[in-house]
Amino acid sequence: MWTSKLIQAFNRSEMLLGKRVCVIGAGPSGMSVLYHFNKLRKQDKDIPEVVCFEKQSNWGGLWKYSEETGTDRYGEPVHGSMYRGLWSNGPKEGIEYPDFSFDEHFGKPIPSFPPREAIYDYLKGEYFSRNPATIYGVADFARGRWTKNKLRHWIRFNHVVRQVTFNDTTNDFSVVIKNLPENKVLPVERFDFVVVANGHFSVPNMPFFPGVDQFLGRVIHSHDFRNASHFKGKRVLVVGAGLSAEDIALQCLKYGAKYIICTWRSKPMGYNWPSQITEKPLLTKIEGNTVLFRDGTSAEVDDIIFCTGYLHSYPFLEKRLQLKNTNGPCPEGLYKGLLWTRGGNNKVLVQNLNCPDQKIAFWTDYVTDISKEAEYGYNLDASSVFYPWVKHRMADITNYRSHSFTNLFTGKKSPVTKTPFMQEFDDSVHHFVNPEQRNGAISQDDNQLIGFGS
Fold this sequence. Notes:
The chain is an alpha/beta fold. It is built from eleven helices and 19 strands. It has helices spanning 2-12, 28-42, 102-106, 116-124, 126-130, 145-148, 243-254, 360-373, 383-395, 429-433, 444-449; strands spanning 20-24, 49-54, 155-157, 159-167, 172-179, 184-185, 189-191, 193-196, 218-221, 235-239, 259-264, 277-281, 283-287, 290-293, 298-300, 303-306, 334-335, 339-340, 348-350. A five-stranded parallel sheet has the order 3-2-1-8-19, with helices on one face. A five-stranded parallel sheet has the order 9-16-10-11-12, with helices on one face. The chain is globular, with a radius of gyration of 23 Å.
């Protein structure tokens, strides 16, 4: 949305042919920048040279699943926090692009809550380049927003940005990049603008509690959570009361955990939980496998999963360019949550902030305001989707994904899913798009794990 505003403004003023733009990250935000520059190019507009640096081997950001945790093969901290079996916890009608619907991509209406692999394919479209489209009953599938628009050539994969500094005298940026496969720091490149789109769900916020370092079981942060089946038969403590805590608790229950305790700091989530999930006030300390809580009660647990959020981390930016605030709808120093005003002569754009899901009214006003300034051309008021969604979750946290919603732009209502979330274990694109053809299809991610995918 605001990407259009950004590019329109640049195109009208100083950003003309001959300028250079550095985009850091090829996730949904960074790819949105590339998409809109490419759109201007197709309109025969003069655009700058745009270079996107992505430290992973493929695009997608957090939507790209990897089994890796800790560090990757190049010794870099693993960026992704994605886990197997994740399904969208919000309706797709609130996140799909106005000019490219899920229905257009898949060639048919699909339910409102897709699995991760379906959302990833909607963006990149590589699944359909590997599999005959006719098996889906469509002769010529759209190939995903990014593949369809041939955006891959803008990106230097396996290249990590090490340093960005602003040059006051020349009014531009010096950027240091490392080629990871070659283990080589490249010559400094100069750019006129920098878009920071590396995301901020990759550096865990890990609080300390007395005794946690002596805990006899497994302790992880949700960043390293990969497969809920690893917790089958276990007594699990989930620390946190946000969206990750909610979904990981349900995932553990779905895949056979004995019971789950969710512990909260400010207030409980308050859902109508199944009997195997309970909520308790924040833990105070840990003794062996016993966890003591603020209300004086205790419980035995086998594993602890911290769902305690993430830290803003931009170590590659010089200090005057770094955002230091915690998560929130109005980070200090960012004009409208976008333009960094405290360094870089208003030429650094940060593209990875979020608003609290409870603040639907704020989010609606914010997005509507930005889209109007951008002359975006679409009504982006999705409150008609999100208010019912909140009610559905409070009424039935295990089954809210069975509801369907109406597309804001086409007016078409999505079909109802055939299998409830808690009973659905096949998260492949093929099965989700064609549940009537269920035949044990292997998901693309499974193919990757056994060596058939890239």
